[in-house]
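Annotators were shown the component list below and the corresponding predicted structure, then asked to write short factual statements about the assembly.
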Amino acid sequence: MNTTTHLLYLGTAICFVLGLHLMNSPATARRGNQLSAFGMAVAIVLTVVVLIDDGIITATAAVVLAVGAAAGAGAGLVAARRVKMTAMPQLVSLFNAVGGGAAALIAFADALPESVDQPVSTTLTIFLDVLIGAVTFSGSLIAAGKLAGVVPGRPLTFAGARPLNLLLALTALVAGILYTTGVGGLGTLGLLTGAALVVGVLMTLPIGGADMPVVISLLNACTGTAVAMAGFVIGSTPLIIAGALVGAAGGILTKLMAVAMNRSLLNIIAGGFGTGDEQG
Amino acid sequence: MTESIALLTIFVLAAFVGVEVISKVSSTLHTPLMSGANAIHGVILVGAIIVTGAADSAIVVIVGLLAVVLATVNMVGGFVVTDRMLEMFKGPGARKKELHK
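Structure shown to annotators:
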């Protein structure tokens, strides 16, 4: 990467920051979103140009990329255009789920060749990327399901859910540490993924439908963090900047939303009580 | 090591910017802002393109392709749906047109 590339990536980061800032006020919000979209377009074209210019990309990979991007763009466009205004929150949650999934997959793409002697800084971020990405993927799917009525909106709890959750979280943690230190290989990474996916489901099920927007915002912040971790894995600054930006902005937004609903975040996460769904 | 530290520095400073940049948002804009931030983490597509482009085995290409599809859905869908939400914040005339569509 040369200086021009770095400067252009910096320009896209500025677009994201200004874009988010413009979204603070109704008068400028739409322009803010368009500015972010513009920055994104520049970042993607730039990435493709650099790949071609460096001669890294093979013809097969280029075709695969083009087909994949066209399919994804088509699906996203149709879903976003057709959705009813009232069904928008669950669609945002679905988009959030696929974003988290993509972040986790990037860690896998980096880990799969199993070129030994990955430095700890890489294995640690692979661990965190897979953990956060997988939890948000399954959690956001359940959240979208609750809002769409596919999964019952009332808080779903069952006996032994807490111990099971704790056990799974411990499993994920141990597997992650084993992977990070290089003791366990891809097997432990698979175990970590499985445990994280179930934790995401079990964390979201006990939360009532009325609290879902706050939970989706929290999961959104998590995806941002997962994207930043993916940025560490492949050493890409635009991913780190945009991911950290969304992670932090999403975190604050989650807090603001909880305050606006007169609920504490801890109460919402604990779930299963005081949700207002019980009377219904 | 210095490169890791540089990346970590960027991460921490960007996080502070994220906190500052939206802390004064009005509550009517909470949902569009969430959706807009959701679209911005579609930047993961850049990462998906990089790993797929540099892939040297079939399995990595497959994983990369899956990541590219998911990331484009996130990015394109995210920006379009946010734009639709924000359309509602325009003047009353524009809103009437939307209803008659």
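Statements collected:
1. Chain A touches chain B through 97 residues (CB under 8 Å).
2. DSSP finds ten helices and no strands in chain A.
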